[in-house]
Amino acid sequence: MSSSPSLRRSTRPSDRRSRSQGFTLIEVMVVMVIIGVMATMVTVAVMGRAAEAKVTAARADVASLMQALKMYKLDNNRYPTSEQGLEALVRKPSIGPIPPNWKPYIEKLPVDPWKSAYQYANPGIKGEIDVYSFGADQKAGGEGDDADIGSWQ
To answer: For residues 85-105, b (16+ Cβ closer than 10 Å) or e, as one string?
Structure first.
């Protein structure tokens, strides 16, 4: 039985060599450009999310500090003074007025995602008390990523 020429595999060395030479320079360059474009798109998407994640983390910290301050007030009938600060949630204040029913309200004070201390004001400017972070620029005010993040939001 004879097979047709199109179904037979060629065993000539020149045919075998041309099929196994690999990719051309153009093919490799096209793949590299595609990978570069995809990497750029992913980087841009992730960078925008990092700033968003920091703001979300700061809001969560502010909410936790506010809850601890409310527990402090329930136990001691008032919030810590501005002089006592948020430190009163971790250590019993040594400056007056000394809280009569103090206990530890949090294990340690968090720092904001920009590595700065959270701010506390009693009386607050925007509420009875204010807990806030200055945001990315570490200055009062600002817009976008630099905006203050506080208990009034």
So the answer is: bbebbeeebeeeeebeebeeb
- The closest alpha carbon to 64, from 79, 94, 86, 80, belongs to 86
pLDDT in tens, 59-98: 999 999 999 999 999 999 999 999 999 999 999 999 989 9
Task: Give the pLDDT of residue 96.
Answer: 85
Residue 15: band (very low, low, confident or very high) from pLDDT cuts 50, 70, 90:
low
Do 79 and 129 contact (CB within 8 A), yes or no? yes
Q: Cβ neighbours of residue 82 under 8 Å, at least 6 residues apart?
A: 120, 121, 122
3 state DSSP class of 119: strand
